[in-house]
Amino acid sequence: MSAWLSVIGIGEDGLAGLTPVARALVESAEIVFGGERHLAMLPPAPQRRCGWARPLAETMRAIAREQGRRVVVLASGDPLHYGVGVTLLRHFGRDAMIVLPQPSAFSLAAARMGWPLAECTMLTLHGRPLERLALFLAPEARLLVLSEDGGTPGEVARYLTARGWGESELTALARMGGADEARHAASAANWRAERVADLNTLAIRCVAGPEARPRARTPGMSDDAFRHDGQLTKRVVRAASLAALAPLPRELLWDVGAGCGSIAIEWLRAAGGRAIAIERDPARAALVAENAALLGVPELAVVVDAAPAALHALPPPDAVFVGGGIAAPGLLETAWQALKPGGRLVANTVTLAGERRVLAFQQQHGGRLCRIAVAEAEALGGQQAWRSQLPVLQLSLAKSAR
User: Fold this and answer.
1) Could you report the per-residue pLDDT of 86-106, keeping only the tens digit for each?
2) What CATH code is carried by the domain that includes residue 147?
3) 74 lies in which domain range?
4) Pairing of β 344-349 and β 392-398
């Protein structure tokens, strides 16, 4: 079947800003879906018009019922850049659709600011936690951020100020491209606009104040970056473990026996993707969620349950890290069986019981064994001396891609 669904980006200038092809598709459509603001831009016509339902899945089902008719969906700017076009593609596939974008809010904001778009980080806070910002805070970073609503700029200003980034320059660009376009600018610490127009994009030039704690996204953050009760994979071992896990975008990690969540958090910070932290202790699971929010990855999923029983209901992983409970019967076998072809498994242990399990598993499945021994200089009286950490036995192996 040829494409029956047209997804058309529209700006604040309405129909006047559309190409002749896009305008013809809108005018000839039998049914048009869109937000209230988009539908209000259209002149009276006999075609049926439907606003977005909540939840959005209701609208997806309504669109599916119109398959075979001439259907148009109106979306802001570029529908495939944090837009509804992404959801539509997942539901209907590219063969059912044509997409005609307009300049995105990011492109318009970069043009207004005079910032090269390729040098900006583009993200959205629409329907996402404010804590995501922490991942992208770096001196002189330029962020373009889609706001949730007119209160988002004030919330961002307060968030940055509280974390030591109050000198950062904020510009709220509202209703770009329309007759009511507006601009509000100030430092985060001096932001006074409680609300701006709901349709706005934030441009942030990050400036680190004396209290700011910029954190690199390479694995191996300092141990004091995490709140923990002692159950923490220490910095050097953590960096070696992440290197063996080899994080890749869009891949899923299981962090089994997560402790304070340091491995899962650094996995997400390094390459994005997805991660599930499995921790049986509710207090430690709460620390995992707290650390994830503080370090900019609030999307980390936390399962409060014991492994291996907890693993059976989870989606298959691309990588598994076992850092706690390794001696539990069947844990390594369950994780290995669930692992996708080409996936990686890394297991760390410091106990004799854990070593016996790892050695037995390695004899059956192969893999690389490594003993990591770390000593750090610490004060001893008026001198310094080496204090050794418990040596860690690490097993790392990859599943055949076949």
Assistant:
1) 999 999 999 999 999 999 999
2) 3.30.950.10
3) 5-102
4) antiparallel
